[in-house]
Amino acid sequence: MPNIKSAKKRMVLGNLARERNRGDRSRLRTALKRAREATAIDQAEARTKEAFSLLDQAAQERLVHPNKAARLKGQLSRHLNKLSAKS
């Protein structure tokens, strides 16, 4: 346990940030999973749009690396293109 006031404050703020990041990361993973599992083209488009938005936010906040966000967006785009080719 820290003894210095500023170290105590940093510990509290670090814990708050960790909890916030866990929630954001969980929401992002869920959105990605829903976008991959979508089978109808209109549903897939809506879920992919939501996932793109969350990926952009996560990359901007450095929750995920920007290159990873771009890679995941490319994978979702390919999935969406595959669904649209089927219909």
What does this molecule look like?
This protein is mainly alpha-helical. It has one domain: Up-down Bundle (Methane Monooxygenase Hydroxylase, Chain G, domain 1). It is built from 3 helices and no strands.
Give the secondary structure arrangement, pairings included.
Elements: H1 5-37, H2 41-60, H3 66-86
Helix pairs in contact: 1-2, 2-3
Query: Residue share in helices?
Result: over 70%
The CATH architecture is Up-down Bundle
Q: What structural class do you assign from the helix and strand content?
A: mainly alpha
- End-to-end Cα distance: 60 Å
Question: How many H/I helical runs?
Answer: 3
Number of domains: 1
Q: What's the order of the H and E elements? A: HHH
**Low-confidence parts lasting 5 or more residues at pLDDT below 50?**
none
Radius of gyration: 18 Å
**CATH topology descriptor:** Methane Monooxygenase Hydroxylase, Chain G, domain 1
**Shape, please?**
elongated
